[in-house]
Design goal:
The complex is a heterodimer of chains A (about 280) and B (about 325).
Chain A lengths: L2 E6 L8 H9 L26 E8 L11 E8 L7 H5 L5 E3 L5 E3 L10 H4 L6 E2 L18 H8 L3 E2 L5 H5 L5 H5 L5 E5 H17 L5 E3 L12 E5 L19 H23 L3
Parallel strand pairs in A: 1-10
Antiparallel strand pairs in A: 1-8, 2-3, 4-5, 6-7, 9-10
Chain B lengths: L4 H7 L3 H5 L27 H22 L7 H25 L18 H26 L7 H4 L2 H24 L4 H4 L5 H24 L3 H29 L4 H4 L1 H24 L5 H30 L2 H5 L4
Helix pairs in contact in B: 3-4, 3-7, 3-9, 3-13, 4-5, 4-9, 5-7, 7-9, 9-10, 9-13, 10-12, 12-13
The chains are: A alpha+beta (about 280), B mainly alpha (about 325).
């Protein structure tokens, strides 16, 4: 049975409790104190040790429009746990697996940090955990770990949302969904979440709010997303691709063109070096 | 003033997206970005990977040369240099690759599985497979040269080693291009029909140059050098054609590779000094060691700059959220 997230952006109030709960439960280092100047978003993107990210989108309506069309949107982004996952296909060690909850999980003791999953994610989610994240100015003593422990287990490898694999195993819901005060983040059976989400789109339409589901039956090569979203703006506004493409779909053309070039040049080589 | 659904339809920039079916070309206003922040993550590959892409080209190309050389006739020296070069590169490349890992001590984890879907897994196994005929070929050559006992040559029959070197060499020269283009990076993905092909061409041209340089120093047959120059000319002109074709095909997606200082560097060092100049030098009817060495150095530099440009262009492309929003199919 597939487990996943339905993130309803119309309910998000931008409190970032999900970000904090995720950092805390997964013992991830803080993001530092960079000030972005972009609305209330100083997290700015998902990262190797940032597995929830609340985006803040401020939109001003044209002057002739009703002022109620000024929009301030919030959206808690997360790894999409794709049905066809680019990172998982690219992984040469088999460190990235699909677990019993149908979620995409990186086994930290197997990953060797080759970095091929990073450009292979069409959503720009997975990244390499820098060694510095785990060594410089971090205080792990508070959670009972030494710097050495933390570096040994996590530095230099790829990191992304595990969909709280450890919590799911003992029957808990993921930390972000647990912490969300508005049920913007809902965790559950993906098929059931789909039903709930479709009803929500209808309800919103009745109330005059135009919305759609991102990552459900879109026909994209990444397939349905186990973590899908209800959006009221074009995907680009939330830094989501309008057209995500599964990288392995390029392989056939790639191998063919390499083989054609190699066959032609080898044949010419034989012709040139043939004994006169 | 109350808001009606009609107001949303009129002023809502997302409305046209939701009305459009998937994959349709969208009006420009429906493609906002998030504070122009990158949508994709930047590849982490640094000089180690660039160097490996270059070395892999020379290695694979040398495998092909070792197979096509007429060793019973004019080209015995070429067969020798190509065999030794394949072996030396096959033994040093893994070190460069291990160096680039985030956790080098876990290199062996690559060998847990054989994964056809992962181009990198295929590449690792291809490299290991290539190292077998490369080692056998070099050992056989060393036995012939009196460096190893003569019976070792019997363990590496030419009829088996040669086709394997050519086949696996072609794979090594080409798979790196497939690996790069089978990603979500727009400037790489758009090149799926070009990057693998010009990687093979550039690899073979570089291998011709490297072997010509070795032969000019060790004193190879002048007729072999002429043949090498001829093959290098064909390969590098094909590379030039593919690079120009890729620029046309990639359009906006190709800007990170062809526009600005990076494009100028590619045009100067790869297309100009790396392809056109050596081609002209090789047309000059002078046979001198300095000319061969100069032409070889230029070709090899051009090959390295091509790989460097490719990787750097991918990094720049990953920072463009508009290109990443509509990934090439």
């Amino acid at each position: 049975m597939s487990k996943g997230f339905f993130t309803d952006t119309t309910l998000c109030i931008g409190c970032k409790a999900c970000e904090v709960a995720c950092k805390q439960w997964n013992q991830l280092p803080a993001d530092g104190y960079e000030f972005s100047g972009n609305s209330y978003d100083n997290t700015m993107a998902l990262g190797a040790t940032t597995w929830r990210h609340v985006a803040f989108i401020e939109q001003t309506a044209p002057p002739e429009a009703p002022p109620s069309l000024n929009k301030w949107l919030m959206m808690s982004d997360v790894c999409k746990h794709c049905t066809h996952a680019g990172c998982m296909e690219a992984c040469p060690t088999g460190a990235i697996v699909r677990n019993e909850f149908d979620d995409v999980y990186i086994q930290p003791d197997v990953c060797n940090g080759c970095g091929y999953c990073v450009p292979s994610c069409p959503f720009g989610v997975v990244d390499l955990i820098s060694h510095a994240d785990y060594t410089e100015g971090r205080h792990f003593e508070s959670d009972g770990r030494t710097h050495d422990d933390a570096t040994q287990t996590t530095g230099g490898i790829a990191g992304k949302c595990t969909l709280c694999y450890d919590r799911q195993k003992v029957g808990f819901i993921p930390a972000c969904a647990k912490a969300c005060p508005t049920e913007s983040i809902q965790f559950g059976d993906v098929a059931e979440l789909h039903e709930r989400a479709k009803k929500r789109v209808e309800t919103l339409a009745e109330r005059g709010v135009d919305s759609y589901l991102y990552g459900v039956d879109s026909g994209a090569s990444t397939g349905n997303l186990n973590a899908f979203f209800l959006l009221t703006e074009a995907p680009g506004a939330y830094n989501l691709p309008e057209r995500p493409v599964l990288p392995s779909t390029h392989q056939r053309a790639g191998y063919t063109s390499a083989a054609l070039a190699a066959a032609a040049l080898t044949a010419i080589g034989f012709a040139i070096f043939r004994r006169a | 003033m109350s808001t009606t659904p009609a107001d949303f339809a009129k002023y809502d920039p997302g409305a046209s997206y939701r009305g459009a079916s998937n994959g349709d070309i969208l009006p420009a206003h429906a493609a906002p970005t998030y504070y122009d922040r990158p949508l994709l993550k930047k590849p982490h590959w640094e000089w180690e990977v660039i160097l490996y892409l270059f070395m892999g080209g020379v290695m694979g190309g040398s495998g092909i040369l070792a197979a096509v050389a007429d060793e019973g006739g004019d080209d015995a020296e070429l067969a020798r240099s190509a065999r030794y070069l394949s072996f030396v590169l096959a033994s040093t490349c893994p070190l460069v690759l291990v160096k680039h890992l985030g956790r080098p001590e876990r290199f062996l984890h690559m060998l847990r599985i054989v994964k056809f879907k992962s181009v990198m897994s295929m590449g690792v196994w291809g490299l290991i497979a290539f190292s077998l005929p490369a080692t056998a070929g070099a050992a056989g050559q060393a036995a012939e040269d009196g460096l190893l006992p003569g019976w070792i040559a019997l363990l590496a029959p030419r009829a088996v080693v040669k086709p394997l070197l050519a086949l696996l060499g072609a794979f090594i020269a080409g798979y790196t291009g497939v690996l790069i283009s089978a990603t979500a990076i727009p400037a790489w993905a758009i090149g799926k029909r070009f990057i693998p092909a010009f990687s093979v061409c550039s690899g073979l041209a570089s291998a011709c140059a490297a072997n010509a340089a070795v032969l000019s120093v060790t004193g190879g047959n002048p007729r072999t050098l002429v043949k090498l120059e001829r093959l290098e000319l064909v390969a590098s002109l094909a590379e030039l054609g593919l690079l120009l074709g890729f620029e046309r095909h990639a359009g906006e997606y190709g800007k990170p590779m062809y526009a600005g200082p990076r494009g100028d560097k590619l045009r100067t060092w790869t297309m100009g000094f790396g392809i056109a100049l050596p081609a002209m030098l090789n047309l000059v009817p002078i046979h001198a060691k300095w000319k061969t060495l100069l032409a070889s150095a230029l070709t090899l530099t051009g090959g390295y700059v091509l790989r460097e440009t490719l990787i750097e262009a991918g990094k720049a492309s990953s920072e463009d959220p508009k290109a990443a929003a509509r990934q090439p199919e």
